[in-house]
Specification:
With about 230 residues, the chain is an alpha+beta fold. It is about 40% helix and about 25% strand. It starts with a helix and ends with a helix.
Length: about 230
């Protein structure tokens, strides 16, 4: 565990011990069994909170396909309802779609949540985890991927490796219908999130492969809308 995370955990543990000490002094008549049950419950809640507010680091469990690092991500989206539009209720379907993007750490450009697919999770679980860690959102993840794209990681773009797969990644992207936006999430301190319409997102998206994923997302959503209208 990184030193920074270790210190944070120690501070949380100290706060827990202080709370337990205060409880024993305020309610001296509580039974030993009840104290144990209460302590275990509180510890579980603290551990649960810590797991929500910490993101995975390192690549010890990273999946690879030959020399390609496997990545999973998603396009979080929501559909604006007619009643939420101020005046114009004739806005077409595309302009009712909004997608959520996040800033890159130490940069102001925008990307969709994505990260390494690890060997103790499915590709869908990885996409959901990255959405929560980077963007602080949860929702309904569509099981069929929008596609798979090969790209070079930003750390390897400047290298002159003869092997074209050096630093290469394969990114699986999914559509995530957002049902919950968290106020606190693991990477809140390093990222900002922003809702955009599809046109804005295409213009501001940092990576070309993510632009292609967004175009695929738009095609899927339009096809589904046309099918609904034809029923």
């Amino acid at each position: 565990m990184p030193a920074k995370n270790l210190m944070a955990e120690r501070r949380r543990r100290k706060k827990l011990n202080d709370r337990l000490y205060m409880l024993r002094s305020v309610v001296p008549s509580i039974s030993k069994h009840a104290k144990i049950v209460f302590s275990l419950t509180l510890i579980n809640k603290v551990n649960s909170s810590m797991s929500v507010l910490s993101s995975r680091t390192g690549r010890d469990r990273q999946r690879y396909d030959n020399n390609f690092r496997l990545v999973s991500g998603c396009i979080p989206y929501r559909l604006i309802k007619d009643k939420e539009l101020e005046e114009d209720t004739s806005v077409d379907f595309v302009n009712k779609l909004q997608v959520l993007m996040v800033s890159s750490p130490n940069r102001h450009d925008l990307v969709f949540p994505k990260g390494g697919w690890e060997n103790d999770e499915t590709v869908l679980e990885a996409a959901s985890r990255e959405a929560m860690e980077e963007a602080g959102v949860k929702g309904i993840l569509r099981e069929v991927p929008l596609g798979v794209w090969e790209f070079r990681s930003k750390s390897s773009i400047s290298t002159n490796a003869e092997d074209e797969s050096f630093g290469g990644c394969k990114g699986y992207m999914f559509a995530l219908e957002v049902t919950e936006e968290l106020q606190e999430w693991p990477e809140r301190g390093n990222r900002q999130r922003k809702w955009l319409n599809v046109k804005e997102a295409l213009e501001l998206c940092r990576y070309e492969w993510m632009q292609r994923a967004l175009e695929a997302f738009l095609r899927v959503m339009q096809e589904e809308e046309e099918e609904e209208e034809g029923k």
